[in-house]
């Protein structure tokens, strides 16, 4: 499924163990979901293994609550010789009415890796 935010790469529901002392989901939990989703898209583009090398920006817009269905959207924003920047947006479907709430957004950069775990050129677009 694709919309203006990109492709839905993951759709997950946080568990009780993911809650911090404020009753919200840990920021690290959503960061890991974003890294997984970005890595899936980057590996597809690189046609092989990739590694996260930077998180250029990330903004937390609203807290994630227990019971939210969390959707992680991703799309290629820019490409270099060996790296690709993936824009990742996270949205919650919340409550019985299924209201969508923007949660966070970030720009993650991944580098394509060769068999020696060194940067390698991306295949042509």
Automatic annotation (TrEMBL):
Keyword Lipoprotein among UniProt keywords: no
GO cellular component, one term: cytosol
Enzyme class: hydrolase
InterPro entries: Cytosol_ACT (IPR040170), HOTDOG_ACOT (IPR033120), HotDog_dom_sf (IPR029069), Thioestr_dom (IPR006683)
GO MF entry, a single one: long-chain fatty acyl-CoA hydrolase activity
Record Pfam families: 4HBT
Domain HotDog ACOT-type: 2-116
GO annotation, biological process: acyl-CoA metabolic process; fatty acid catabolic process
Keyword terms, alphabetized: Hydrolase
Extent of the signal sequence: none
Matches recorded under SUPFAM superfamilies: Thioesterase/thiol ester dehydrase-isomerase
EC number: 3.1.2.-
Family: Belongs to the acyl coenzyme A hydrolase family.
PANTHER family: ACYL COENZYME A THIOESTER HYDROLASE, ACYL-COA THIOESTER HYDROLASE YCIA
Name of protein: Acyl-CoA hydrolase
Organism annotation: Sphingobium indicum (strain DSM 16413 / CCM 7287 / MTCC 6362 / UT26 / NBRC 101211 / UT26S)
């Amino acid at each position: 499924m694709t919309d203006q935010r990109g492709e839905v790469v993951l759709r997950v529901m946080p568990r009780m163990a993911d809650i911090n002392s404020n009753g919200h989901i840990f920021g690290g939990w959503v960061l890991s979901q974003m890294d997984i989703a970005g890595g899936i898209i980057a590996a597809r583009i690189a046609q092989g293994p990739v590694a996260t090398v930077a998180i250029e920006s990330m903004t937390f817009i609203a807290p994630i609550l227990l019971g939210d269905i969390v959707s992680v959207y991703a799309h290629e924003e820019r490409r270099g010789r060996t790296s690709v920047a993936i824009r990742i947006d996270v949205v919650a479907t919340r409550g019985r009415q299924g209201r969508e709430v923007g949660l966070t957004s970030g720009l993650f950069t991944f580098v394509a890796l060769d068999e020696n775990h060194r940067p390698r050129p991306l295949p042509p677009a």
